Amino acid sequence: MLDDVQLGYYDSVDGIALHRLHTNSEDYDSEQKDAGVVFGRMFESMKYTTTRLRKHFNSTNEIDVFQRIIGCELLEGDVPGQIKLLDTYSGFAGNLQEINFNMQKNTLAWSMDSVIDWSFFPESRIKWVVENIYQPICIKVLRRYLQREKRYLLRKVKPRVRLLKKTLTHSTRTQVTCLATGFYPRHINLTLLRDGQPVPEDQLTGGFLLPNTDGTYQMRKSLEVIAGEVNHNYTCVVTHLSLDNKLDISVDYDPGPSILPIVLFVLLALFVLVMIPIAGCIVWKKCAGHTELTQNRYIATASTEDNECSTDPK
């Protein structure tokens, strides 16, 4: 991962790195060698550590999950920063171990949980591995992909922000929602104000960062209020790297599910109910009129024939 972009993954069966993004052919051999050293070594270390952890926790599970994350950073001026390692294990609260190596000060801070015997990994060996394998390769790959994907990674897309007030279905409460979507990079600060004062976070729901299909992100925070609190002045305040100043958005009212389709359906039903009897009456009158006209024509024809018969000389 580079920030929030997946660069690739390691296939432990075939022992090769597979890239999600385009890679130059001249870098392929170097990247495969680096992947073999870093991922291969990490994979073997994790297998060995997992065996010890299963034994330590007396695990009888068919599947146990051991996770490790290692990351490095570049500071301003292309200066290497810290490299950090975190280990976690299924069923264990917190981190099993955390390693922070400061390249500038050449110092290693290693904290581990006391319930685990880490004597099989002496600190001097940990420092050597981080300093001579993980850190230089990580920085080299980071620089390479930063240069290659700079235009994509350093882009800034402004958020589209709305503040909605929505009446909840089957409830007397109203939901006030602050929504920001379509922004990049992912870091954003979303604050809901009530009469100019921030609403405490423990009263809000949401606040999770979610990805959009176009590579941007969205976040929303919602507050449910009773009828007496609806008329307060609510404001959504957003700060983001793409904005020169903070963005303040006032309420757009969302009445909830539209009743227009229901109204149209009722009117249509009433129209049909009214028109059916009228149409039936019109048809009946036409039929009755036609029958009467036919009968009149028949009577007139019969009278004419009788008159002709009475004047016929014999």
UniProtKB/TrEMBL annotation:
The keyword Phosphoprotein does not apply. GO terms for cellular component: external side of plasma membrane; extracellular space. InterPro entries: Ig-like_dom (IPR007110), Ig-like_dom_sf (IPR036179), Ig-like_fold (IPR013783), Ig/MHC_CS (IPR003006), Ig_C1-set (IPR003597), MHC_class-I_related (IPR050208), MHC_I-like_Ag-recog_sf (IPR037055), MHC_I/II-like_Ag-recog (IPR011162). It holds the Pfam family C1-set. Residues 159-250 form the Ig-like domain. GO terms for biological process: immune response. It comes from the Eukaryota. Keywords: Glycoprotein, Immunoglobulin domain, Membrane, Transmembrane, Transmembrane helix. The chain crosses the membrane at residues 259-284. The keyword Transmembrane applies. This is Major histocompatibility complex class I-related gene protein-like. It comes from Chanos chanos (Milkfish). The lineage of its organism: Eukaryota, Metazoa, Chordata, Craniata, Vertebrata. The gene is LOC115805221.
